[in-house]
Backbone:
């Protein structure tokens, strides 16, 4: 319904211009106040809903960052646990080395009771009984310069200690000195001729040792006790029942370290998950669900303990039982040393796996943060206002309003002239 007031065309045009300017100023002030050019779906449906989707995904990734961070700490805790266990294993190696450096007192020994040379033979040769015996040829008819082993019955010596055996041949011209040297090369026994010209053989380890003289035919070794008696008089190896006090003192030290190893592995958990106690860890990297859509990493745990590493206890005994080690037994100490070396190899493998998993998770953490930044920037580009441009627009609109008011005033001056005539 018309107001009944008639405006000139110029006035009406200026008024419409002022109204447009006021509307633009209102929009401009809203953008300056909110910092956004799209505040609702009414402003720009496409930009608004696209920005909402991007922001929602960024928020979902932000929620995953906490899980990723916990995953990193869990892997780091396990890795530190492996480092601690590795350090303990190296200390245990030191204990084993100490035990090995202390001579065992229970080495098997064979003290021959037959003199391989007589005083008369030594006097004739102008040598000691020992040197005379060492210079004698082993094989051949017994005489002044020959021990007298029959090569048709025995031209080999066989030594056996535990599961290790060593066989060597006696040549036609080999002397007792050659025989002694061959025994020393075996690694399982040492030999010497004492001052009485008697053969003495001592095991290098604590295992029971045997020595035989014989001959091999068709791949089968046949021993001849009578031929060996020409070297030893048939004396068997004996083992003393003594123990090394120094080795005994290391038993508790080794076993305490073993206990500490188990405790270190048990204490390597974080937030209820211990990768060294057999727990597994799943870290999600995206917000999607479903096997084909979800991005994740499954970290497999290890049940780490002294038992799983093959490290038994030290026992102050001469005989090892089960997985334990007999500290008074050289061979058992060698087994302990080998077990610790194998344990270190296993620990290196576990540490390498954790290191690889940690690197993967840290890379995904960095990627997730960067992806969130991309999403947030993309959403902001769709809805955020250019504040510099809006500030400039505000000043321009203020100037435009001032000019519009002035123009409206000028347009009304014609009507004021008519009013003056009417007066």
Residues:
């Amino acid at each position: 319904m018309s107001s009944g007031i008639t405006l000139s065309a110029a006035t009406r045009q200026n008024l419409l211009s002022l109204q447009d300017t006021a509307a633009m100023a209102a929009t401009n002030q809203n953008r300056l106040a909110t910092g956004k050019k799209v505040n609702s779906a009414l402003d720009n449906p496409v930009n608004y809903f696209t920005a909402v989707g991007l922001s929602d995904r960024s928020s979902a990734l932000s929620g995953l960052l906490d899980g990723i961070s916990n995953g990193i700490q869990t892997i780091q805790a396990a890795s530190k646990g492996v480092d601690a266990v590795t350090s303990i294993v190296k200390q245990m190696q030191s204990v084993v080395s100490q035990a090995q450096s202390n001579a065992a007192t229970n080495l098997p020994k064979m003290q021959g009771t037959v003199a391989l040379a007589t005083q008369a033979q030594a006097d004739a040769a102008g040598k000691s009984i020992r040197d005379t015996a060492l210079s004698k040829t082993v094989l051949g008819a017994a005489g002044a310069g020959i021990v007298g082993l029959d090569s048709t019955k025995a031209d080999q010596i066989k030594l056996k200690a535990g599961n290790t055996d060593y066989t060597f041949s006696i040549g036609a011209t080999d002397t007792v000195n050659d025989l002694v040297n061959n025994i020393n090369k075996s690694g399982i026994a040492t030999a010497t001729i004492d001052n009485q010209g008697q053969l003495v053989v001592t095991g290098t380890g604590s295992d029971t040792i045997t020595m035989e003289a014989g001959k091999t035919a068709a791949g089968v070794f046949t021993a001849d006790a009578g031929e060996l008696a020409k070297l030893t008089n048939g004396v068997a190896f004996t083992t003393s029942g003594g123990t090394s006090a120094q080795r005994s003192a290391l038993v508790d030290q080794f076993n305490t370290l073993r206990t500490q190893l188990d405790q270190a592995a048990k204490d390597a958990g974080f937030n209820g998950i211990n990768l060294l106690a057999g727990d597994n860890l799943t870290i999600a990297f995206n917000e999607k669900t479903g096997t084909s859509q979800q991005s994740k990493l499954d970290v497999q745990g290890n049940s780490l303990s002294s038992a799983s590493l093959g490290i038994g206890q030290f026992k102050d005994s001469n005989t090892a039982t089960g997985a334990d080690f007999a500290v008074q037994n050289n061979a058992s100490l060698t087994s302990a040393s080998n077990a610790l070396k194998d344990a270190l190899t296993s620990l290196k493998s576990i540490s390498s796996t954790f290191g690889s998993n940690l690197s993967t998770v840290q890379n995904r953490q960095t990627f997730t943060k960067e992806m969130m930044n991309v999403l947030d920037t993309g959403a902001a580009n769709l809805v955020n206002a250019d504040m510099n441009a809006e500030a400039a627009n505000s000043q321009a609109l203020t100037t435009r309003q001032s000019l519009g008011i002035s123009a409206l005033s000028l347009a009304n001056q014609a009507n004021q002239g008519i009013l003056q005539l009417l007066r």
Remarks:
- Residues 45-101 form the longest helix (57 residues).
- The mean pLDDT is 85.
- The chain has three domains: 9-35+387-422, 79-104+246-356, 109-232.
